[in-house]
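pinning this so it doesn't scroll away 📌
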Amino acid sequence: MITTLIILFFIGYLGIALEHPLKVDKTATALLLGMLLWIIYALGAEYIVPLVEADHFKAYLESHPMLANESLHKQALSYVTDVKLVESLGDITQTLFFLIGAMTIVELVDIHGGFTVITNKITTRNKRTLLWVLCCVTFIFSAVLDNMTTTIVMVLLLRKLVAEQEERWLYTGMIVIAANTGGAWSPIGDVTTIMLWVKGNVTALALIEYVLLPSLVAMVVPLLLIQGRLKGTLTPVEGTQQDQTHGMSARERLTIFCLGVGGLLFVPIFKSITHLPPFVGMLFVLGVLWLYTEIFYNGKKTERRKQHRLPQVISRIDMPSILFFLGILLAVGVLEASGILAAAAAWLDSEVHNVYIINILLGIMSSIFDNVPLVAGVMGMYPIEHTDVVGYAANFVQDGVFWEFLSYCAGVGGSMLIIGSAAGVIAMGLDKINFGWYLKRFSLIALLGYLAGAGVYILEVLLMKAPFLGIPNL
């Protein structure tokens, strides 16, 4: 049964990685994979549970005497459905509710034209200056919004600024890198950082403190290399003048922008004050925005009144992505429950035993495979250690080196291929960037930026963490 689970997971993972060549949406593959693994796990429960969960299974049977006369299969199946599945869903739904809330808030700001508050102020025609401005705005935006939304906003803006395709692709390629690096240092900037933060592997302040500078370096290095290919000033793009007010006044757009973005920034503060799970803060902010828009539109007559209300906005969020996360996290939950991830972690500890090498390799893998299942799998492999441990185990405490470096590597590593991140796939679809074109012009410089940022993080650890936490040096 264990072998079957491993084989099916890798087949499903391969199907997700080859989504575009196969022309099969990765959500379908992820959902099928997640459900199939739980079915097989349940069918083989009588063999897997006593082997992997002997102590917990015994305690469960002692607390449920009504199962004493039942067959081993029924006892094990009851344990799987009442304990393992419930625990897995409990962890997963925290992440999903957080994402649903965040995506709805972003859509609300977008449909009201809130992002034009920033984008309308980008008026420079100097090519190099524009590149720096766009990358810096993307870097900051993606730390607050999700990478996909940030990329969409910036690529659509580029269409109004840059006419020549080859030149526009240079800007778009850098926007992909800036979006990925910007999301890596923020607890709400990328799905992988959200997962690590929600689960308690990292805290917001520590993530910003140690991952911000490496992420900035990972963006600046490619930026310095690309800017040499741009010279002179841009000519105005014809036919781009259109109404971008979304039926809102400048003051109304500014208000919704401040409420939405301010609400997203408030979520980490909410968690630090109340110590409640982050999804509670996110849904609280969504509730406040919902109430505000209801009151606002009750006193305003506009043609867009209905489509700007929250019930309509919610229909715009990317539900396939939500279902993808559900499917892949359920699949990873089976690997964790069946002891496969614990065995993989033990192998890495004995054969590699270096958190820097492990994470750098994971980052490179994230440019080929989706980083969500990659990070989910790694999180299942390693438990969060107690704060009083020293030596190698100290890398796995909350805010430990392993988790912070994983956030950087999984987020930034996806920039090495255009298909390696959600931002890259979005840019590929919107601006029709060729895979080979990106590979030739951006993959190497993205790798250089990735390694430079990794070096900065390792240097930070050696100077600031290792002497005090008993973490072994390289």
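📌 and the second one:
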Amino acid sequence: MNHKVVLQNGDSLPAIGQGTWYLGENPARLSQEIEGIRKGVAAGQYLIDTAEMYGDGDAERMAGRAIAPLVREKLYLVSKVLPSHAGGRALEAALDGSLKRLGTDYLDLYLYHWRGSYPLSETVRRLEEMKKKGKIRAWGVSNFDTDDMEELWRIPEGRNCQVNQVLYHTGSRGIEFDLLPWMREHHVALMSYCPLAQAGSLRRGLFDNAVLKRIAETHGVPVTEILLAWNIRDGHTVAIPRSSKSAHTLSNGHADTVVLTEEELQAIDRAYPAPRRKVALDMQ
């Protein structure tokens, strides 16, 4: 893997990391999932994304077991705080819980999972406190639309936000209308969850689409790699596909070597056009 995404704070991330949504919840698959995480890291997918919400902490526990024998400083660990924990003493308690489950004493990036009832200024203040304590190196947000980001930018320390993690894939391009241009203008990196359209109806026939299948055949790769190559095509996006199998994890990482031609990108645009109006964020 060669492509890197550089954040405002100078952190250099792999364009394709590893997601953990729904992992760690089935004991029968645990060893397989742990092996997949480790092989992915060895292949250059050293960013691991998780959350306290995933399996009520089971994903963090699985990730913690997976990284236990690895060199912590060579990893980039991301977790998320629930809206109900995003202020007061609850935020630090939630963070401490995540750190314990992951078996580490700091996170590289801590995300506010989605908007809740705490004032945004309160959440920002607590996140900045966690930075000062050394429990997180940086913070960002998730599932924030354009108006949320504009509100965040009106908070003095809100501009320390490094990334916005939202659902984005070939069949769900709503963020391209106004959110993504706003993020590019303000140097907020995109972290793309569900880049392989794991989310139900939003798959929109992606894996059976004749255009995508033809492009995949041209490159000699599965459609999943075309979807990921498309996802990270701008150089400012980190995709975090989830996989429970080593072979799939390694295939995901290989997508970083696939370079789509302008003609191929145009063909994908015709098959899955970008929106021409504002649409609500997809979140599932």
